[in-house]
């Protein structure tokens, strides 16, 4: 399995390289460059040439491409032109916030999706089943940023129980440890809900049909015939078999979650990767954008790999090679 | 009744019919917007800014006193056709690439599959951001640009489906017969293979319209879609973001988006169930 993982990661290198190159070409095709942000209006000619020379903005495209690739291979991923700080530092500041958000959403997707899907499958055809199906059809169609705003309206404006912006209270540094943790968690609830709801609905639908399919199979009938209770049949036998497609789905959901986090982060002023890359693109700060794309690419590859490894662990029939 | 067979079996699926009804209803509302809208959607200061829904303005007014109901109706004239156009681009491109990959195999297949994986590996919205930021100076033809970009970043699932479908159809007897007769490959592909790959594409296209409408709304929300003053459902929500306590600015366009996406999704699910049913005239 380790050899398989290593080979998967190695074959992903050209993929990540292509992603970065594509992104570089896109930024090159853009009219103007970072000098629009960098050089103040009414700057003198000397100042302008000095800035252009400092960041080598007038070098030929091929040279700048090689320099950008070189930057990515060094530890710091290059220097942000606008903020004059190593891109790696910026990413390391933003990444925990986004990973916390994504992990919370994933956890919510798993708990809600599997829970509701299982309930539906056990009570097939009941009002609960139909109601949940209807809700999941609607939730799957709701734009995440709109849900985010509606949640803010409901739980921060009308019923002020949860914070609606930033990842932590501005006074968090002065709080005792447990209170700080609580504050962090409170800030996570609404964004994670907004980001994960649509995917939780999707997982509930898939899990319901997967479980129904498994419940019809012989080994479940055998387990029942042995006199096991419905709960034990579900948790020990059916759930394990029905989990496979869901795990694959979770691995595939990662790019969607990152996409969603860009808009959801904007609603909640969440200091994460989405905000970083959005600002980077706006300011045409090439090193920042390339660094973010690199990290996204790596995360997606690793996520897919983890999903495959988990699938193999769940199903002894699957061999990774 | 003399319905085509597809529509006839659709009648037995209440949810799919509901989807069809939602799609047709929203489409009609958008088409009839010039006659239905009580006011000019672009006219500012029709009434006081931020007035809540009431008798004079059924869905309230926005920050510059425009009528939200009229803007909502006209917004459908951008969001819906843009979604359809983008999906047409995505389905066309995906079908072409998928068919080529499945039919020719070898290096063509490897290259196209790698390309597909490349595009699938990226968060779509991040890619869209990069492309549209590049094109941010384009003001004319923004509608076409956004549709094209959405299409160019949404074809991958279609390509995968068509590829696997082409692979499975290729082993069927009639394709072998056509090869045995010495027909040119282009004719075999177009006449004997591709038609069997199209039904799943139809299903997926319907589901794709939903995600495309969502992506377009997200772009508009970020200020990169069709710009103001032209109303789209996405940029109306973006306006609501600035004044969250004027809840009507946010809530109604979001409901319109949700209704449209639910409609296309239900329709797609219904079509899929329909295709899954065994019928004599299917391969």
How would you characterize the overall build of this protein?
The complex is a heterodimer of chains A (321) and B (283). Chain A has 321 residues and is an all-alpha fold. Chain A folds into two domains: 2-59, no CATH class; 90-314, Orthogonal Bundle (MetI-like fold), CATH 1.10.3720. Helices cover 77% and strands 0% of the residues of chain A. In chain A, helix 5 (87-122) crosses helix 8 and helix 7 (144-158) crosses helix 10. The N and C termini of chain A lie close together (8 Å). The radius of gyration of chain B is 22 Å and the shape is elongated. The relative contact order of chain B is 0.16. The chains are: A mainly alpha (321), B mainly alpha (283). Chains A and B meet through helix 1, helix 6, helix 7, helix 10 and helix 11 of A and helix 5, helix 6, helix 10, helix 11 and helix 12 of B.
Distance from first to last alpha carbon of chain A: 8 Å
Into how many domains do the coordinates of chain A divide?
2
What proportion of the residues of chain A form beta strands (DSSP E)? under 5%
Radius of gyration of chain B: 22 Å
Name of the CATH class of the largest domain in chain A: Mainly Alpha
Cα separation of the termini of chain B: 26 Å
Secondary-structure element pattern of chain A, one letter each: HHHHHHHHHHHH
User: Count the helices of chain B. How many?
Assistant: 12
Oligomeric composition of the shown chains: heterodimer
Beta percentage of chain B is under 5%
What structural class should be given to the helix and strand makeup of chain B?
mainly alpha
Helix content of chain A: over 70%
